[in-house]
Amino acid sequence: MKHIRTRLHDTDAITYDDDEIVDAINCGLRFIRRAIADFQPELLMQTMHGELQPGEYRVAFARAPTALIRVTAGGEVQETIISYHSDKIWHNYDKIWHNHTKICSRTETTVYREHELHSSNVMRIRDFSETGEPCSFYRAGMAEIRLWPVPEHVTAYTVLYVDDIDEVTLSDVSPLGTEFDDFLIEYAATRLSVGNEFDMSQEQQIMANIYGQIQSLLRPLPPGVDTVGYWDDRGNCCVRGYGRRDY
Predict the structure, then answer these.
(1) Cα–Cα distance, 38 to 157 (Å, whole number)
(2) Which of 62, 109, 154, 180 could join 81 via S-S bond, C-beta 3.0 to 4.6 A?
(3) What's the whole-model pTM score?
């Protein structure tokens, strides 16, 4: 807030009130998050695990996700992990007469082998009641996905997604990293100052500049390529498969 008012030359809070600045900040957060989601959505990624009983095929979110990155599911048991805990009850040292059974808890955890599901939609589903091993998923509203075919056995699932944003208030801090604070301050200051002058072309140019800076910051390095030459290392004979590229 202080940095934005300094950029706007409004440290005495005469031109802009706090609500206007907070609205601009929230707009900036959404703008920057969309830019991040275009290049490296894993920076915003959250994970949801769960299990579906036979006949269940719906996976519901607490609120509508902004984007789905990857959905996996599977019913094949990979391993079963058994663990024991608390061989004594806290502060209970008295033994039961003629009872030699240890007092403990037994936990059994089943790990399933999951595979990636393909994204689909309702127009491509042949039969909604078809059962089997799920191979795809489709959206059903803003906060729900459904697996297809309908699982016949207990099926574990994992969803990697980008959650919706919580708007900040005056007492909050930016949910983005410090590296993105400059972008947020620049966006909010530009939106407020340019908005008063009604110069939309200038605003679009500055927004494109911010987007390009975020793109440059997050763009991954190009993969290395090794090309097999025509001759071998000694230069005596032709190499089989010359011209092949190894990444």
Answers:
(1) 25
(2) 109
(3) 0.69
Report the C-alpha gap between 132 and 243 in whole angstroms.
Answer: 44
List 144's β-bridge partners, or say none: 60
- Phi, psi for residue 173 in degrees, rounded to 5: -115, 165
Q: How many CB atoms lie within 10 A of CB 19?
A: 9
Angstrom distance (rounded) from CA 52 to CA 245: 43
Give how far Cα 12 sits from Cα of 9, 16, 205, Å.
Answer: 8, 9, 29
Please give the chain's pLDDT, 247 residues, in tens: 788 878 788 788 788 888 888 898 898 888 888 888 888 888 889 999 999 999 999 999 999 998 899 999 998 888 888 876 665 555 544 555 665 555 666 777 888 899 999 999 888 888 998 999 999 999 999 999 999 999 999 999 999 999 888 888 888 888 887 778 888 888 888 888 775 555 566 666 767 777 777 777 666 655 555 555 555 555 555 555 555 544 4
Mention every residue, 6+ apart, whose C-beta is less than 8 A from residue 241: 228
